[in-house]
């Protein structure tokens, strides 16, 4: 998958982990977020740059 297809560099996605749980992240293309199901947080992507700060993360809803 290319960066144009995903909106984020696939190699970057492979090496990024959640700063809280240290687990891998799932890219949510529609919301432009990196999701950590283990931590229950979604980190925003702004201008193609993941913001991996807990203070900037959105808590996931129960159904997410």
Short description:
The chain is α+β, with helices and mostly antiparallel strands and 64 residues long. The protein contains two helices and five strands. The radius of gyration is 11 Å and the shape is globular.
What is the fold's blueprint, element by element?
Elements: H1 3-6, H2 10-15, E1 26-28, E2 33-36, E3 41-46, E4 49-50, E5 58-59
Number of helices: 2
Taking the sheet with the most strands, its summary is:
5 strands, antiparallel
Overall geometry comes to globular
Question: Which architecture name does CATH use?
Answer: Single Sheet
What share of the residues does DSSP label as strand, in percent? 25-35%
Gyration radius, to the nearest Å?
Answer: 11 Å
Which structural class should the secondary elements be placed in?
alpha+beta
Summarize the helix and strand pattern as letters: HHEEEEE
CATH topology (level 3) name:
N-terminal domain of TfIIb
First-last Cα distance: 24 Å
Mean pLDDT across all amino acids: 89
Structure description:
Belongs to the UPF0434 family. It comes from Dongia mobilis. It holds the Pfam family Trm112p. This is UPF0434 protein A8950_1364. InterPro entries: Trm112-like (IPR005651). The chain has 64 residues and is of the alpha+beta class. The chain has one domain: N-terminal domain of TfIIb, CATH 2.20.25.10. The protein contains two helices and five strands. Strands 1, 2, 3, 4 and 5 form a five-stranded antiparallel sheet that branches. The chain is globular and about 30 Å long.
